[in-house]
C-alpha cells in the first residue's frame, strides 16, 4: 500500500484496507481501486482487474465518499454531477449512482453505487518520440494522443510537460488541469510551466494562448465543440497543443465531430496511438496528418 496516497488510505474502512493490502502483495503497483456497493472491490494493475475479498455496504460506501470529500460531500456537488471528485494529490475518483435530473440535466447523484479511485504514479521520462515529433514540426502543429481508457495517457502527458518545460531548450508550457490530475509530479522549481487548475478546458486554453504567452499547451481528454473552437483559436495564434482523447483507432478518433473540426483546421500534425509496454513504457503508432486524411474521409462515410 506504499504507493497509495495518504488521503485514500485514511478514507478506507479498516477491514477493507486489510483486504486490499492482502490482494496487493503480489502486485507491482495499483493503478485503480474500484469499490462497488454490495459487490467485490477490485484492483487494477498493469491493465488486469484483480478481485479482493472486500465488499462494501451502503453505509460504508457513503462514509468512504464523505471521507474522500474531506467531510463535506456538498462542497463537491458540482463535480459529482459530472461524475468525479478530486480529493487532491493528483487523485481522481469516478462517481456513479442514481442521477437526479432537472431540466434534462443532472443536478445531483445519490445512492452512490460505485467509486473508482485512480492512483497517480511518478514515472521515468516518457514520450521522447512525441517531443521529437513536435520539434520536427517546429512547434507549428500539435500532437493528439489516443487510446482506450486506462492505458496511461495522463501519465504520459505529465512526462511530456516536464520534458518540454525543463532544460536548456525549455519552452513556456501551460498545463490545463481541469480535473486535478495533471498537476501531480509537476512540482519541480526548475520547470518553466504555468498550471491552470480547475479551469474549464476551453477557458484555460484561451487564457494560455492569449494572455500567458504559452509556447505549448497540454491538456487531457478533449473532444467537445467548445474545446475544438478554443484549440483552433490557439492554433491560429501559433500555439500548438498536445492533448489526449479516447479512441481505439485513427478512424474512430477522426469520426468525432470536435476532432474532425480540428483535423480540417490542421491543428494536429500527427495522431499517436498508445499501447502499454511494461510497467512504465509505451509503444507508439504514429500517423502523420497527411496519412490521416484517408482515415478522415473514411470516417465521414
Explain this structure to me?
The protein is 34% helix and 31% strand. With 301 residues, the chain is α/β, with parallel strands linked by helices. The protein folds into two domains: 113 residues, Beta-Lactamase (2-Layer Sandwich), CATH 3.30.450; 172 residues, P-loop containing nucleotide triphosphate hydrolases (Rossmann fold, 3-Layer(aba) Sandwich). The chain is globular. The chain starts with 5 loop residues before the first helix and ends with a helix.
Q: What is the CATH architecture annotation of the largest domain? A: 3-Layer(aba) Sandwich
Helix/strand/pairing category: alpha/beta
How large is the share of residues in beta strands? 25-35%
Please identify the oligomeric state. single chain
Helix content: 25-40%
SSE order, as H and E? HHEEEHHEEEHEHEEHEHEHHEEH
List low-pLDDT spans. none
Spatial strand arrangement across the major sheet: 9-8-10-11-7-12-13
Chain-averaged pLDDT: 91
Outline, from the CA principal axes? Answer: globular
Overall number of structural domains: 2
Question: What are the defining features of this structure?
Answer:
11 helices; six-stranded antiparallel beta sheet; alpha/beta; single chain; 2 domains; globular; Beta-Lactamase; 31% strand; 13 strands; seven-stranded mixed beta sheet; Rossmann fold; 301 residues
Amino acid at each position: 500500500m506504499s504507493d497509495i496516497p495518504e488521503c485514500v488510505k485514511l478514507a478506507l474502512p479498516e477491514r477493507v484496507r486489510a483486504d486490499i493490502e492482502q490482494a496487493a502483495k503480489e502486485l507491482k503497483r495499483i493503478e485503480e481501486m474500484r469499490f462497488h456497493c454490495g459487490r467485490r472491490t477490485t484492483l487494477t494493475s498493469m491493465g488486469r482487474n484483480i478481485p479482493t475479498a472486500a465488499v462494501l455496504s451502503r453505509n460504508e460506501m457513503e462514509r468512504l465518499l464523505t471521507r474522500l470529500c474531506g467531510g463535506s460531500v456538498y462542497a463537491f456537488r458540482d463535480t459529482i454531477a459530472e461524475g468525479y471528485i478530486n480529493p487532491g494529490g493528483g487523485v481522481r475518483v469516478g462517481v456513479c449512482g442514481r442521477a437526479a435530473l432537472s431540466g434534462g440535466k443532472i443536478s445531483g447523484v445519490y445512492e452512490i453505487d460505485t467509486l473508482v479511485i485512480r492512483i497517480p504514479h511518478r514515472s521515468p521520462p516518457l514520450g521522447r518520440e512525441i517531443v521529437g515529433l513536435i520539434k520536427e514540426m517546429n512547434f507549428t502543429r500539435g500532437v493528439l494522443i489516443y487510446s482506450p481508457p486506462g492505458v496511461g495517457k495522463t501519465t504520459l502527458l505529465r512526462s511530456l510537460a516536464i520534458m518540454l518545460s525543463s532544460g536548456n531548450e525549455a519552452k513556456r508550457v501551460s498545463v490545463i488541469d481541469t480535473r486535478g490530475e495533471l498537476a501531480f509530479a509537476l512540482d519541480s522549481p526548475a520547470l518553466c510551466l504555468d498550471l491552470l487548475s480547475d479551469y474549464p478546458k476551453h477557458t484555460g486554453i484561451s487564457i494560455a494562448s492569449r494572455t500567458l504567452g504559452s509556447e505549448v499547451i497540454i491538456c487531457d481528454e478533449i473532444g467537445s465543440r467548445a474545446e475544438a473552437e478554443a484549440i483552433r483559436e490557439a492554433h491560429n495564434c501559433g500555439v500548438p497543443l498536445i492533448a489526449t482523447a479516447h479512441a481505439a483507432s485513427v478512424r474512430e478518433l477522426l469520426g468525432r465531430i470536435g476532432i474532425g473540426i480540428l483535423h480540417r483546421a490542421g491543428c494536429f500534425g500527427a495522431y499517436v496511438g498508445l499501447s502499454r509496454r511494461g510497467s512504465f513504457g509505451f509503444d507508439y503508432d504514429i500517423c502523420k496528418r497527411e496519412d490521416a486524411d484517408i482515415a478522415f474521409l473514411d470516417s465521414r462515410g
